[in-house]
Design brief:
14 helices; alpha+beta; UDP-n-acetylglucosamine1-carboxyvinyl-transferase, Chain; 2 domains; 4-stranded mixed β-sheet
Length: about 425
């Protein structure tokens, strides 16, 4: 159901300084991890987004007591007594699959429907299932995912690809299991390390090897913890790309620049001035932008798939021809027809988008196809001379606390309309 639209008058360069909300992709597995162990967990700087609200509803459904006060969430999982998640709850959010590992670790059983979320590709969960099977879980797959882990025990988990979700599920399942677990070919995303940091604060023994594998000495009881979420690197990247698109100058404070090195390298190649400090990024994009001859998405530390759509929107006005290849989610180019409504010259060649830059985009009535595609359309509208309207803002609200507030702080003409 469409809950409203965004009205954006573009052509205004963004300027200013901003702080970034807590990380969506880190907080969701951390919330799932709260059902492991004893005591109350307090999560600070928790982003106030739709995906968090849906996750907390799942936790209440399982028996957690949840209290929210602004950006602080308090979770008491002492009364968790359920191991099945209903279809309505799971269907709204892809990350419901993370409760698979957490429930197997806590309850030794788990039942949940196939997870929902954005329609950006198949996103099969076979990697999750394969990882958990290596720890002793048994699966019965029909209309639901049904699993038991009576014989759950630490061991060697070898991932065929460095899947973030599969890595997180293996961590969640193994942290209470007896014996040592070694997750080989583990995902290296900062969000995975943040999950590990939260569990360590609760008493888990987790470390990275020199090769990047994750070693877990399972069986320790987990206690209460207070944890503050780090800033969201995808939201930070979105703000930087919005500034670049409008030829503005924007600084992000209290953010580790190293987490966006793949993006800042591309921006420098495009002719953007980038200044990185230990906890600050500042960009200035007053000059015409150069095209990106070839770029493909890749697991961290490669270019993030979640920033591919926003970058595509920026390249619609870069001089020359750009080629962006999506190697992770095959449906990331669902925004292309919407960008073409604005006059963008884009053609799809297999899993690549070929973008011929234009001097300007024209305003249009648009519909967000998914979370990151919605953010990309906001960026496109910010650089069009005139007023655009974007429907389906509920997608954007899944990952951005208040995109209108943040962009208005930088001078954008954007407002929510019903």
């Amino acid at each position: 159901m469409d809950l409203g639209s965004l009205e954006i008058t573009g052509g205004v360069p963004l300027h200013g300084e901003i702080c970034i909300q807590g990380s969506k992709n880190a907080v969701l597995p951390i919330l799932a991890a709260c059902i492991l162990g004893e005591g109350v967990c307090i999560i600070e700087n928790c982003p106030q987004i739709r995906d968090v609200a849906d996750t907390l509803e799942i936790m209440r459904y399982l028996g957690c007591r949840v209290q929210c006060a602004g950006k602080t969430v308090q979770i008491d999982a002492s009364r968790v007594d359920a191991f099945e998640i209903g279809g309505e709850e799971a269907g709204r959010i892809r990350s419901s699959v993370l409760f698979l590992g957490a429930l197997l670790g806590r309850m030794k059983k788990a039942v949940l429907p196939l997870p929902g979320g954005c329609a950006i590709g198949e996103r099969p969960i076979d990697q999750h299932i394969a990882a958990l099977r290596q720890l002793g879980a048994r699966f019965y797959l029909e209309e639901k995912i049904t699993a038991d882990a009576v014989n759950l025990r630490g061991g060697r988990v070898c991932l065929s690809i460095p899947s973030v979700g599969a890595t997180e599920n293996a961590i969640l399942a193994s942290v209470l299991a007896p014996a040592e677990t070694l997750i080989e070919h583990a995902a290296r995303e900062p969000e995975v390390d943040e999950l590990c940091g939260f569990l360590v604060k609760r008493g888990a023994q987790i470390s990275r090897t020199a090769e990047g594998d994750i070693r877990i000495l399972g069986g320790n009881k987990l206690g209460p913890a207070r944890y503050r979420m780090k800033p969201d690197r995808i939201v930070a990247g979105t703000c930087l790309l919005a500034a670049v698109a409008t030829r503005g100058t924007v600084a992000i404070r209290d953010f580790p620049c190293r987490e966006l090195e793949a993006l800042t390298e591309v921006l420098r190649d495009m002719g953007v001035s980038v200044v990185c400090g230990e906890n600050r990024i500042e960009i200035s994009a007053g000059r015409p932008l150069c095209a990106v001859p070839y770029l493909e998405t890749a697991p961290y530390p490669g270019f993030p798939t979640d920033l591919q759509s926003p970058l595509t929107a920026v390249l619609c006005r870069a001089r020359g021809e750009s080629r962006i290849c999506e190697t992770i989610f095959e449906n990331r180019f669902r925004i292309v027809p919407e960008l073409q409504k604005m006059g963008a010259k884009i053609r799809i060649d297999g899993r690549c988008a070929v973008i011929k830059g234009l001097p300007a985009l024209t305003p249009a009535k648009l519909a967000a196809p998914d979370l990151r595609g919605g953010a990309a359309l906001v960026i496109a509208a910010l650089q069009a001379n005139g007023t655009s309207v974007i429907r389906n803002t509920e997608y954007i609200e899944r990952g951005y606390e208040d995109i209108c507030r943040d962009l208005r702080l930088l001078g954008a003409k954007i407002r929510q309309v019903v």
